[in-house]
UniProtKB/TrEMBL annotation:
Signal peptide: 1-24
Family of the protein in this entry: Belongs to the plant dirigent protein family.
Database matches in Pfam families: Dirigent
Descriptive protein name: Dirigent protein
Record keyword Secreted present: yes
């Protein structure tokens, strides 16, 4: 690796440590401040930080508008108080505002698997698929553990494509609204995504 170029392994380790430690913080405000402080101290000569905010519209109901489907469960999922063994496949609409009819930017697709005996917590393997707007054709890959009862859930960005190639970062997930009558939930994702500063890295190598 040329002197002065981005070390993606070091960035991945740092962000992984951040993601694993802020989840233990006692309050939602502390978690948010911890993430903000971390990204303020990035080396901006080598990295580009993009902050995004999206709303995910999840329909758990049955019918033509359903977007979340159970595809498997274990023999103890029924009696379990934490949905242990339940697997969901998801294709949710992604918008810039909380209204389902606000500007669409893409889809939020992937799989959730409940694998905690003691707490309702989904292991998430998800992707933001941009179908509209300035990032059209790009993707962001998200992985992590989401304890559904916690106010702020901290997830990791582990990669991406297109404009988010070599992406790393953090997602702060929270619930905007949940309607048990319609089985529709709206979730807010505050996203901190870091990518290499390509032009500056090229100059450092020359």
């Amino acid at each position: 690796m040329a002197k002065g170029t981005l070390n993606p392994i070091a960035i991945f380790i740092a962000i992984t440590i951040l993601t694993s430690t802020v989840g233990a913080t006692s309050t939602a405000d502390d978690i948010i401040q911890s993430v903000e402080n971390f990204y303020k101290n990035l080396n901006k000569d080598k990295l580009v930080l993009t902050k995004l905010k999206y709303y995910i519209h999840a329909n758990f109901g049955v019918g033509p508008t359903q977007t979340v489907f159970e595809v498997a469960r274990s023999n103890i999922t029924g009696p379990s108080t934490n949905n242990f063994g339940r697997i969901l496949i998801i294709d949710n609409k992604l918008t810039v505002g909380p209204d389902v009819n606000s500007q669409k930017v893409g889809q939020y697709q992937g799989m959730n698997a409940y694998s905690d005996f003691n707490q309702a917590s989904a292991n998430m393997n998800m992707n933001i698929i941009y179908t509209d707007g300035e990032y059209k054709g790009s993707t962001i890959s998200i992985l992590g553990r989401q304890p559904v009862s916690e106010k702020i859930r901290v997830l990791s960005i582990i990669g991406g494509t297109g404009l988010f190639r070599f992406a790393r970062g953090t997602v702060l997930a929270s619930t905007y609204s949940s309607d048990p009558a319609t089985n529709v939930g709206v979730y807010v994702y505050d996203i901190y995504v870091v990518t290499p500063s390509v032009e500056k890295s090229r100059k450092a190598e020359s």
